[in-house]
């Protein structure tokens, strides 16, 4: 991809992008209203809709989001009425007429472009007095209304417009997850800047792991949160089910000021589906590649006429294989949710889920025969070098959360969140011990391994939000504390296995023997106290200031090695400061500084306790969000440093010292826009220059740090009503990842770059929807991760999934 420069000059690019965005902004019509409503060209143009029948309020919400307009009406006017939906190509006014047919209501456009509902006077009813139109704000925990989200709580723990947050945030909503048929967090975030596949690709079969701004992000590094609370604590706690999520949000860069210990690249916060205020329902049937069979459903709505009680039940059952021989990808997921809202000021939500996943921890394949040529030929992608009677990953997890919120008045609010997470794992796997042998170039040594794990995680987060003004400055102050207590008990097994022929594998006839090897008992306590102030000056300048104090205590016991128990304590202060300028034309340049820390364990040569690893980042960026359009453009440059990294002690290499350092610098671009009434576009580009800047390991200083320089993606959706038929929608995407670097100091090899194509064909008619999703359309063979210790992992070949849905 020749348009990707290999040596960008960050400041020059930032100035160039800013000028381009400013020019685009000046080209827009002036005099737009303060509330974002559809511009005249959008209201006069016809576009395709495929919205099925349902409760009037629900259909109105979906239509207003797709049309880019806002409508207001008394709740008593829509309650109890149903809409026939909107099927076909319409202007905004024609669309309102279609969805209101038979309801006895009409939509009237006001002078500012908004709409108000009223009784149809022609039908003999009395017309209501005009209702003031107000923007229907997007909730930080609700559905994404349009192509790009406008609000998020991940960056501030308050419901804040993303454009007012001085740090990079990307949001993927449930609609995008559905359209792209994402099967994991990694796939759902595949069209998001700053993210790339994890260092080890095979782990994606059983865990959520990826790289953010060049640094590994997984549950063990404290990078994953659910509903704002830490979720899972290690890579053996499995994967989250995307169908159970309303949003997936990525806050890039150090984030310890609000979330405590975490890797410096950023955090991923998933938002659970919650009970809706209107009735919803859907049922989906899937079938596809690798003998896939799946049924899923999502129902919810109010339980009483007053709307004080509402519920949601989301479920999924799947039986499937994966592209590797003797593999499986079975899952059961059930997530009930209940909300009690005794008044407009108080709410209590119960979120629970049960998940059972049966898959495998697949062995890799030798580097000679995959990345490197082998005289015996290429090792097939489906090759399984484990043992069919041994390899398994059987995980059962439960999670129960309570979310409480109470507003004392318009200026003071308290929130309390609690979650208990439990997981039990039985894992058996085969570990390959290097490349093929030098003599035959066919056989590879192996050993048998096993884990029997039990994990518990209790999390609590309590905060108070206070809004007040001091002269021209509006303050939103947040103060709170969070606490996490976790346990991880692991009984590990080990056994011998004979070598296997990578080209003609012969498996063991009987059961593989793996005997007890290690017994680990780990406990951890984390407590953090944080304060944050969001200052808005004259509605033009937003200043964000925050600080946090953390304390962490870890107790590690090795029952198989008495006397080697350890107890480590760490504490750290982290801060953040940032500023955003909100221009009238939709431009919002920002600058920020943020810090992170990660606890460490162990002692150095002098028996001194190690100190936490630290991260710090400076970021400069700009967002462009023109009023009245479903469009968000963003660009950012960052300089991220991780200090106190372990490196060999120069006086005794058997010990470690913390004088290592890694620096990651880069540029991120993101565009989410409805470019025409019929076409939506999602585009992202990331340039990352990550290097080891300090190390005692010979040859390591100056090496690139595991990360491809360029990652680019483009996804487009188009409604084809004008050219084909109403209800027809197609989508297509490109994902490009450049080559990963070799690292001679550690013996790892970087895989070559690759480009993948994804497509989707959909058709909706009434309550029925049909879709066909294909990932890796060209069936490209690729290696998405580094090759280490003589082993590599293949990426997934072409996958086809067909879906039939019924919605009501």
TrEMBL record:
Stretches assigned to the Secretin/TonB short N-terminal domain: 69-120
Coiled coil: none
Pfam families found in the cross-reference section: Plug (PF07715), STN (PF07660), TonB_dep_Rec_b-barrel (PF00593)
Residue ranges of the region described as Disordered: 139-161
Stretches with biased composition (Polar residues): 151-161
Entry GO MF terms: siderophore uptake transmembrane transporter activity; signaling receptor activity
Residues of the signal peptide: 1-42
Database matches in SUPFAM superfamilies: Porins
Record's bilayer topology term: Multi-pass membrane protein
Family: Belongs to the TonB-dependent receptor family.
NCBIfam families: TonB-siderophor
Protein name listed in UniProt: Ferrichrome-iron receptor
Organism: Orrella dioscoreae
Species classification: Bacteria, Pseudomonadati, Pseudomonadota, Betaproteobacteria, Burkholderiales
